[in-house]
Amino acid sequence: MIKTLSKSVREYKVASILSPVFVSFEVILECLLPFVIKNLMGAIKNENGIILWQWEWTSWDSLSIGQYALILILMSLASLACGALAGAFCAKASAGFAKNLRKDMYYKIQDFSFENIDKFSTSSLVTRMTTDVTNVQMAYMMIIRTAIRSPLMMIFSAIMAFVMGGNLAWIFVGVMFPLAAILLFIMIKTLPLFRKLFKKYDNLNESIQENVKGIRVVKSYVREDYEKKKFDKAATDLQIDFTKAERILAWNNPVMQFFFYGVLSAVLFVGSYLILERIPVGFGATLNSESISQLIVYGMQILMSLMMFSMIFAMVTMSIESARRICEVLQEESTLKSPENPVTEVKDGSVDFEDVSFKYSAAAEKNVLEDIDLHIKSGETIGIIGGTGSSKTSLVNLISRLYDVTSGTVKVGGVDVKKYDIECLRNNVAVVLQKNELFSGSVKDNLRWGDPNATDEELVEACKLAQADEFVRSFPDGYDTHIEQGGTNVSGGQKQRLCIARALLKKPKILILDDSTSAVDTQTDALIRKAFREYIPSTTKIIIAQRTSSVEDADRIIIMDNGRIDAVGTHSELLGSNEIYTEVYNTQNKGGKAVSSLSEMDVEGGEEDAR
Description:
Elements: H1 2-6, H2 13-44, H3 65-110, H4 114-120, H5 122-144, H6 146-165, H7 170-213, H8 215-220, H9 224-249, H10 252-276, H11 289-331, E1 351-358, E2 369-376, E3 381-386, H12 392-397, E4 407-412, E5 415-416, H13 422-428, E6 429-432, E7 441-442, H14 443-447, H15 456-465, H16 469-474, E8 482-483, H17 492-504, E9 510-514, H18 522-535, E10 540-544, E11 556-561, E12 564-569, H19 571-574, H20 579-588
Parallel strand pairs: 3-10, 3-11, 6-9, 9-10
Antiparallel strand pairs: 1-2, 1-4, 4-5, 7-8, 11-12
């Protein structure tokens, strides 16, 4: 885990090293300050009288009050400077580390297959890139500064305590072991709770995500109260577990306070007794009022260091589970990879399914697709119709290798899709998904997802084929019109046509339209199909549709039923001979003859969008 996370430090290694270096200097100076103060107090009690200032320096014992004051000021300023530099480098390193972690996770997720995304879930990935990274950032900040400062402060303070107090300093050393055992016990008890806690964060984010994305549905069905209760339940579950974990962690402070004041009392009691009885304390130390006052200072530094350690334990305890969840993403390998010597050219747009079966999860009991044998010639127009859940989308997802088949083979251009370079394959298979997505930016920016180097003339040509040019030009800024995130400022039909134009710019050998004309009227749908037939005749076109009118003029129509191919044929062949197709056709044309083919309709009319 540490090895995986450390790869994200990269250019912030120098800052990560300089922070503990300056912390070390800061600690050394802070530990020397009480020693200088002890000598200052000795100078004040000098039997020869108090010397306020003298220019010459002979030994520590002969320094004046002014010289001690100057030394203390310089040491304090140097300690302050080291502390400030340590803090600056620490902030830079931790913030940069968090930036790189998010960047590495984002880039990793971009390479994930749909199977990988399904494994983690969207809400969980969002939590890992936000809350989990923040926890790890805070832990890293404490590790490169506080976690270095605390042990150094304990070590140097303990050394100076032995120098000043001799055997009396064993009181400080002895208390470290039971205190460390208690802190370790607290960490072991809270770690499982935090592991459970982050799963609740995922549930909370999922609830928010669903509500934001489906806000129109929630309001349409007046389900606000239900969704509020659902969110309250997720938030309450999170609160209960977090409170339980925090209650255990809260023991850190009273335990530290108990040991702190206990040790302070012991030092004062035992130290006073040793001074009054003039008992030697060993280690060459001379115990007196000056040394015991500074010994208390060193004792406070030791125990404060232990208290900081407890804070580190609390933060690290929280971040261990976050770090594990981040590493899960960074260590996850995409289930879809290009082979070592991939095929980098797609010969044509032919598609072959050879005894294909498929299921989304290896643990699933039933196949989504089963016994699929289908051969599509390059340039053919294929329509696919079937009921909801008949696996139409699952079938076409295998062509561009969004998923891998469970058994059998899918070939494009006569070559198994697993042998292609994935980027090459997907550049030749354009998919307009069932759920259309536009991104924030201009119309041109969205269209150039299909071809970043497309000229303005090519953009216009693609929009004309997709019947989008007319409404785009009607916008005040034309092709420079800003599209909001998700395309919320255009209608459903406009969004679909822009997505079709974007796919056409790829100049693909295979074009898949997954119910992507459902929000346009039948007249516009017919115009789009006519443009396909006339301007891209060599491109294989696979059209998934709910309306029979969208596939009537296809070369062949595939009827899907419960993950199997029920029938294949032309409109005239299937009408009357296939029960599913006949039922769908009659249902959609009940009450009068449907105007569907281009020969029966006037294609010069206007366009109406279904919002």
